[in-house]
Amino acid sequence: MLLRGKSIVVTGAGSGLGRSAAIAFSKEGAKITVLDLDEAAAKCTADKIIAEGGEAMYQKVNVADKGSVFGAGEAAADTFGGIDVWMNCAGVSKILPFLDCTEEIWDLTLNVNLKGMFFCCQSAVTHMLKNNGGVIINMSSQSGKKAGAQYQAYCASKFGVIGLTQSIALEYAQQGIRANSICPGVVQTPMWDKQIADYARKRNLKPEDVMPYFCKTIPMGRVCSYKNFTDMAIFLASDKSEYMTGQALNLTGGSLMH
């Protein structure tokens, strides 16, 4: 029980990596606030945690809206006695040629992936300063360290996440707040399922050949599993990583080593 009694907020926890993190944190003893734009999905995650004997609440949140984010932070702190860990998993992604990227797609991607994370980190820091410390975990990507073609808005947002995380880590290290980011490679999440056809078009592949193609390009021969991801998230959320801050940790099976 590495996280016993800790109050943890997870954005994007209605599905994918956010949902897996919320459930894994609960199994380590944490009290979970599930945040997602899809209220039904958020409720589903919270209900699963509660059914398995954990503590959870849920709330519909638009991370790109500061009032929505700060209201959710207040609710989490009031319900569970503060916020010890805040993990930002909400995100959007679109694969398309550079000249086909519209202003609307650019704005949506940056608003959710970067501005939304900025708002969430502000809310987290506000509450963590009251508790003399805390942990922020931000989702970046291997695309936040090495750009990919036809991924312009996503790459820009994820490079930005690393800079945001490092700045927070430097500013609040002496106040006991740690901030780190995770940079996964490919994980077959619902978000990836939605863009497999676009990636197949980009590489001139059949959609069913995309994941086998990735496996061939990764030194360890497979994509990242949910457990690989949650094991790292638990480590960063726990005191096991108490001397680690400002890091952008690769989770790529060896396909990225810097």
TrEMBL record:
Gene3D superfamilies: NAD(P)-binding Rossmann-like Domain (3.40.50.720). It holds the Pfam family adh_short_C2. One of its GO terms (biological process) is bile acid metabolic process. InterPro entries: NAD(P)-bd_dom_sf (IPR036291), Sc_DH/Rdtase_CS (IPR020904), SDR_fam (IPR002347). The keyword Oxidoreductase applies. Keywords: Oxidoreductase. The keyword Oxidoreductase applies. One of its GO terms (molecular function) is oxidoreductase activity, acting on the CH-OH group of donors, NAD or NADP as acceptor. SUPFAM superfamilies: NAD(P)-binding Rossmann-fold domains. Coiled coil: none annotated. Belongs to the short-chain dehydrogenases/reductases (SDR) family. This is Short-chain dehydrogenase/reductase SDR. It comes from Pelosinus fermentans B4.
